[in-house]
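Reminder to self: tokens first, then the designed residues, so the page reads top to bottom the way the pipeline ran.
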């Protein structure tokens, strides 16, 4: 894996930074996020949640911090296509640029009453965290991020 990019920082876009209220490796969640976890425009098989990551978080190959939009498409998952897309979220404008897309690994979990993001410390870069899984409110399935292949010299 090459160097991660930092979403939105190379542009003239205003950087949205949230307060730091969580610890690395914990399940991060926004209390208001559960109310936003609902089907997109009533389309069956599609869930979304706009929430923020409160510390620099590596999502596949991009580091983000602030509001993001998680979208999961069950039809794409059944076809073996990248079923998760993460976008920057501008509170005053909505969905912005795509920062990551991947085929999730379904993980059985107990259903929760809120949107959950699970992370682990980013030991490779020495700061921030790495997205390992997310789960929508009321869904008994988590969506794990596949591990990148290990690079050897």
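Designed residues (153 positions):
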């Amino acid at each position: 894996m090459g160097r991660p990019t930092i979403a939105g920082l190379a542009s003239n876009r205003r950087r949205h930074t949230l307060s730091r209220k969580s610890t690395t490796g914990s399940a991060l969640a926004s209390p208001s996020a559960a109310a936003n976890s609902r089907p997109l425009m009533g389309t069956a098989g599609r869930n979304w949640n706009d929430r923020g990551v409160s510390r620099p978080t590596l999502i596949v190959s991009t580091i983000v911090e602030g509001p993001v939009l998680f979208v999961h498409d069950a039809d794409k998952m059944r076809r073996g296509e990248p079923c998760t897309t993460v976008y920057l979220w501008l509170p005053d404008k909505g969905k912005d640029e795509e920062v990551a897309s991947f085929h999730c690994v379904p993980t059985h979990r107990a259903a929760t009453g809120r949107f959950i993001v699970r992370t682990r410390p980013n030991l490779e870069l020495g700061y921030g965290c790495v997205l390992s899984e997310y789960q929508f409110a009321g869904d008994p399935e988590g969506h794990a991020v596949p591990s990148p292949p290990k690079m050897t010299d």
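The chain is about 5% helix and 45% strand.
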